[in-house]
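Hello, quick one for you while I still have it in my head. I'm working through a protein record and want to make sense of it properly. Would you mind checking whether the tokens look sensible for this chain? I owe you a coffee for this, so here goes:
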Amino acid sequence: MSESNNDATTKLEDPIPSNSEDNPFQEPSTAMVNGEATLPANGEAKEEQTTDNVFQVNIKLPHHPYQIQIMVSTQEQVQDLRQSIMDSPGTFQYSCFHLEHNDTRINDFVELSEVKGLVAGSELKLIEDPYTEKEARMHLIRIREIIGAAGNRIDTLHGISAGLSLHDTVSPWKDPNTTSAAANKALNGNTSGNLNPLLDCSFDGLPAVSTIIPSKQEQPPKTVKSIGLSPWNPPPPLLRQQGHLLYLQLTTNEGEQYQLTSHISGFFVNKSSNSKFDPYPRPAPKNVAAHSLFSLIANLSPSFKKSFEALLESNNKRDPLASFQLTNAIPSSPWLVSPAVNSLSAHQPDLTRTQETYLISGIENTETLRDWNEEIQSTRELQRDTVQDRVFRERLISKIFAEFNDAAARGAMMVARGEVAPLNPTESKDAQIFVYNNVFYSFGADGVGTFTSEGGDEAARVAVGKDVGGVKAVNQLDIAGLAAPGTMIVDYLGKRLVAQSIVPGIFKQREPEEHQVDYGGVEGRDVVAENEAFVPTFSQVSKALKVKKHAVWDKEGNKHVLEGSVETKGLLGTDGRKYILDLYRLTPLDITWLEENWSDNTDENAKPSTHNYPHRMTVLRPELIESYWGLKMGEYVKDELEKRKSTGTKLQTPSLTNGSEESSTNGVNLDGRESAAGSKERTVEQNAEQERVDISAFSLTLNPDVFCAQVPQTDEEKEEWARDEREVRTVCEHLHDKVIPDVIHDLKEGEVGFPMDGQSLSRLMHKRGINMRYLGKLARLTKEEDPRLRALRSLTIQEMIARAFKHLANNYLRNLSMAFATSCLAHLLNCLLGTGLNKAPKPHLDEDLKDLYNDADYSFAKVTPKSLKSDLEAQVQLRYRHSLEENWILDIKHLQLLRSIALKLGLQLIAKDYHFTAETYVPSGESRAMTNGSAAHAETNGHAHGVTNGKKKKKNGGRNSPTHTNGSDLPGQPQTFSPDDIANLVPMIKDACPKSVLAEEALEAGKSSMMQNQKEIGQELLLESLALHEQIYGILHPEVARVYHQLAMLYYQLDEKNAAIELAHKAVIISERTLGIDSSETILAYLNLALFEHHNSNTGVAMSYVRHALELWKIIYGSKHPDSITTLNNAAVMLQNLKLYPESRQWFEMSLSISEEVSGKSSVNTATLLFQLAQALVLDQDHKGAVNRMREAYSIFLSKLGAEDPNTKESEKWLEQLTQNAVSMAKHAKDVQARRVRRVVFNPRVSTMGARPQPQVGQSTADMFNDHELQHSNRAFDSRSIDELMRFIEGGGDMSKSQTTKKRTTHGNPRRRGGGAAVGATA
């Protein structure tokens, strides 16, 4: 994804009209490569490529339909072809087979290009293999999934409704192979407004939580009543020798029960019953048998075929991407879930659900025990010589990291719940370590005193988070010969756990004279080890991360020269690999912040420790170092050029070089590939006026150990150390004096997209190299009258409060049993958000359970709204150096703050309208339905249904709350939250999985080619990048969603509308499932999809997406977001396109009102919107209002831009034409009044003044205007002043003047206003 998208700075509407007819992408049902959609190409050149690499083969089958055709690629492996066969509709019953070509068995792990004689049209024979026990288990799992008999799984890691997509419910998905012309006509041909999705949309009404809850789906048809393992398992030894593998039990829809035997030859019905064991085949004619369990069920159940077809039809109603299982990405868990999940009836019985662990891992449970470290390191050591090698390697890396993260997170949850025994049970809890599933766990706390001088537990918590970031950076560098353990952190139930793959030798007891590590600090900074074997690899890390090679001194004063920080350690594993550990200090400390906010309390004037920042681990962000490097590089090049100019010397070649050949870390370059350094060099090259500058002499590295109690010994060492300190201070000054003010300026001027929530604000700050501790400074610097900065200030304050609440909640949860977690969180939420309903909330505690946990900390029960408010203010002051205003509690946005807290703590709340004020609470059994148009206070979410005491039926969920187990039925005043409202807690995960270098290179190369106007090469590279992203990550991955988004924008600009829409749909679904159904990136994806659909004449569908995006916007931000101006404007244009002029006018007016509030009444943005509103008023036959609005626009343009600006001239001519038209209309009305009706010669087109519905949303004005028409029509303008004409319109003028006696008609239309976001309209 581009930088603008990653840091929430996307400009939504800056489109180019598109008129393509062909979609360059086919559906997976048309062609399968690697089990995914192939990318047949766009144009003749691509067709040639397709014929070279992709062709069709015939697969001969042993059963009906006996033969199928499948598209294959020469680059895919045979096992990928096997997967394609298993995924095809007519052959998914096969799972245990091999393929033969010319009667020769093909190895599953070779590429198809290596199969001799395999060409287009070749015939491959599918041969059924005998089963093993593992294959029989996998076959049973697979068939249960296919026939819909698997039931609902209870996933302990991913949470409720993980990976949810609402795309199909927003606009029902249509099979692209069927025509949708009739449906589109019904939506787009409507002019009555009955099908207008925006008809009842409220601009500033309350957000409706129903927006992010899926509509009730019909239950898919059941194909069998049940199928699973029989109680007779496992087979006794005698029968196992005869080929018996499993015993199954099947109950068909007809109510018949069958006992089945899984045999090495297939499956058959045996003679057993529930009380009698006889696993041999039944005699004829009941001896039904088949190689596939699917075929056997079809033979036994007469209704199976029909019900299975109905199941397929039901599944086909959804977009396949919405139901595919995520493999290489963590699915997003929504913070609001349907009330039905708490219904007891929602939990269905399924005996096999408890047997899945056995089915997946076997009776010995050995198949899931893996040596994670060896798998990760051996995968990284695979060959990388060719592009094919790199694709295979990076694909495996992505897969192994995803599997490690999944296993490590599950183990971390068990450790947090106390279900894993520690290896050192005699130590304190924070110092205990664990091993589970070959993963090493420790707490992110200072259990052994390592960080005592740095801030204790707070410093340790930050350090492990920075360590994961450091490991990710090293993994991204991908340096040969350097290994980093698999690492991730999990925040769960108030605890932070570090999960690592076990490094061989890390637990080894060394000899007394040997150090525990081989390079770097051994025991803090007191003992330092050196080892020349680590220097080559560590130096590569240091060079890439701008770390200076520097000296450090141990407690004896001995000097040691290290390539990295003294805290970074090197360990020689017993497997011979060199491991790099403890990467939490790759960048220097932010000394400016520390000197202002930290004291070691060593002098008399030191501040009290309670006022200190919580820790000294205030390292600078690597993005800031890159920013500073770029600044210094520019200064160096500029100085070099000045030197050259002063001597009159110019070099021959217009290029820039670093003094050596550019080499790739990975050894392979793609055509047009450009590294990050190359990008910087290209920028510098352009700025250097194409003169050649040798940058090999330029160097900028920083010492990460300055200001860390190092004591140089000699004067020379002290002098160098002082230089290092000055350089770090300069970087900190760059942050304070340049970076932070630039961000504020860019947001104030609208040069970057405005963040929507805390997540997008964090991404923006991190992208610019700003740590979150500077939220307070942002809030202070935005304390002015500018409306955009007021919005930013409100968002930063909300984020500080949410983060402070997270820290407080974690402190209370850390020493609590899971049984009290929901009671604790509900009480804290009531004290913060529920005081409008109950000023003195009481905690819900089960006293009987409380007695079982005598060592737990129940201090949360003593929290009151007053004490929590005070604690939050103290936390915000402590962590962000910001003092909240006295009445800040009155200004919070309840629902938005609740969402932010839920996302930070991993809460999944029941979706209902929470009552934050007494006005919205309905004490009786009545309830009001959820609506979008309630005219209540915008800062409350007070829809009144779903009383939280559990006694009332939720209208939305249609169920009764289950019996409360934590005392939420206690009598007394109602409370906003009860423990039962917290349906689940999911872990918050931060991993170290690197991005694909190869896919990113292709993407950057494609972008570069497009920028150089090499469209054909650029498109080819971008398609290659998309294919690489899909192959390496799998389709369902956030990085793939971002590539889909970028390619959709590109195709839209290239007039490939169908291709853009197809990719945009995929981007929406994948964003929803991996980033969140209400994430800021998902909203942007919906808005762009709406734009593409509108330009493809699917305006009705487009408005559905706009409506959904606006409802999401209200949930995550509230109303009147600065960037919503453009969206409202575009919605108005869409309504004009449907000839819904009154509704369009309302949306233009709303867009204008927000612009006046956000940009100011006299801004150019507001003037542009006034211009467009004037046109809308003409279309709505309000000529007088149109003149007023156009005159306001003209006045602003004149004062802000001057009389000669094109906008000023254009608005002036429009104003003259509109005024002339209004005068004619007013005079005609007076004539009618005085009964002096005269015939007015009136051109019908003049009434709309040429202000047709804009055909392109966001098109520039210049593209639409015709100067000849303007000059021609100018001759027909009235000669009097505008003021005179306006006085007549308003009833105070006299039309009897001589110069007006002659009536005339206009000779042509004035200029037509172009797009919905003309100059200055884009917010």
